[in-house]
Amino acid sequence: MKRMSKEEKQKQRQKVLFPILVGLLSAGIFAGTHLFLTHGFGAFVEIGALAILQAGASRGDVGFYGAAAVFGISFLFSRVLEGSLVGVLDAGGSIMTGIGIGLPSVLLMLGLYEPLASFPLALLTGFVAGCLIGWIVSRMNSKGTGGTLPSTFGIDVIMGAGNQTGRFFGPLLVIASFSLSAPVGIGATVGALIFYAWKKPIEGGAVIGAMVVATVWPIFVS
Fold it and tell me: How far apart are CA 47 and CA 8, in angstroms?
């Protein structure tokens, strides 16, 4: 029986550990979405994408779930392919957006509320989904796709579309800030205008402006 070399053993450990690490990260992200939907806090995702999911949850509108599902799953799909090609898995697009928004939206569209209603089940669901993602990335990468193929399989188009949609989150952030309080909304508006004049993404200015004003006019949660 042929003995495995040290390098081969290390590769085998990586194939096992990587899916587990992705699973643990996904478990926390998915459970955070569960906490937000049940208790109003705890999500680890972008506020713009979360607003779409929250709108569907508050209205029970499948259309909002569909929009959030398409946005999240498209990011997940592109990042999984990207990770297989270059050997780097973008946690923001694949885990935070895909597992935190896309997967919950799909489950809610299908009427499967249990994974998002129970904290232990949310942890388990996120862990299993993360392990599956990690396994797919490691398997595809081990087949020789890691930076060796000239084709991007269209992931550049998908990622470009996702980045373009991110530009529309600025106005959503401003509207969400006004829903908290008028001073905070004004701060978000001023911050967004400054960043717009500075030719920077306005969502960053909206967040900073809202945070600065909120230190002066605290938001009291009832």
Answer: 43
Name residue 138's amino acid. S
Give the three-state DSSP class for 4: coil
Rg value, the chain, Cα: 20
Rounded Cα gap, residues 22 and 196, in angstroms: 36
- Say how far apart CA 26 and CA 137 lie, in whole Å: 14
Which residues neighbour 202 within 8 Å (Cβ) at sequence distance 6 or greater?
Answer: 170, 192, 193, 195, 196
Q: For 147-157, how does the pLDDT look when each residue is reduced to its tens digit (9 = 90+)?
A: 445 554 544 54
CB atoms closer than 10 angstroms to residue 181: 17
Least confident of 7-11, 15-19, 173-177: 7-11
Predicted confidence (pLDDT) per residue in 129-180, tens digit: 999 988 888 877 655 444 445 554 544 544 555 555 566 777 888 888 888 7
Closest CA to 49 of 98, 6, 11: 98
End-to-end CA separation in angstroms for the chain: 68
pLDDT for 86 equals 64
* Per-residue model confidence (pLDDT) at position 50: 78
**What's the rounded Cα separation, in Å, for the pair 163 and 168?**
10
Which helix (H) or strand (E) segment holds residue 151: the answer is none
**How far apart are the C-alpha atoms of 129 and 110, rounded to whole Å?**
17
Q: Tell me what pLDDT residue 186 has.
A: 92
Q: Is the dihedral of CA 129, 131, 137, 139 positive or negative?
A: negative
- Cβ neighbours for 74, distance < 8 A, ≥ 6 positions apart: 102, 158, 161, 162
